[in-house]
Amino acid sequence: MADPVEMEMMAVMRGLPDNRRLEMQMLYQNQRKDRNTALVLQLLVFLGLPGIGRMYMGDVGMGVLQIVASYFTCGFGILWPIIDLFLIQAAVDGKNRELLQRLQYGMQG
């Protein structure tokens, strides 16, 4: 499945001159996070490495909290990263939307 934020990026780029479109597209592609990569990294919870998907996204604090919760709650904290498996792709989309908005404002300014 294609990146859902890319459709939004195409709409944003319509109003930009050609040279700015290419610049914005390159910046976005270099900084965006991949939904499937985050999901696969989050699956490392089953190998005893919770929170790696969150760290990949840039949510280092939440990733560390998942590790701490998993190891210091006698295993009960492992539920959080497992639940996060279902939420992480939407969280990546949110991070990519934030990136797109920052790039958009940077291109307009």
Using the CA coordinates, give the radius of gyration: 17 Å
Oligomeric form: single chain
Question: Biggest sheet, open or closed, and with what strands and sense?
Answer: none
Instruction: Output the helix-strand order.
Output: HHHHHHH
Distance between the termini: 33 Å
Low-confidence stretches: none
Explain what you see.
The protein has 7 helices and no strands. The protein is elongated. The longest helix is centred in the C-terminal third of the chain and has 21 residues. With 109 residues, the protein is mostly helical. The two termini are 33 Å apart.
Task: State the gist of this model.
By secondary structure, the protein is mainly α. The protein has helices at residues 4-13, 18-31, 35-42, 52-57, 60-72, 79-84, 88-108.
Tag the structure with descriptive keywords.
109 residues, elongated
SSE topology:
Elements: H1 4-13, H2 18-31, H3 35-42, H4 52-57, H5 60-72, H6 79-84, H7 88-108
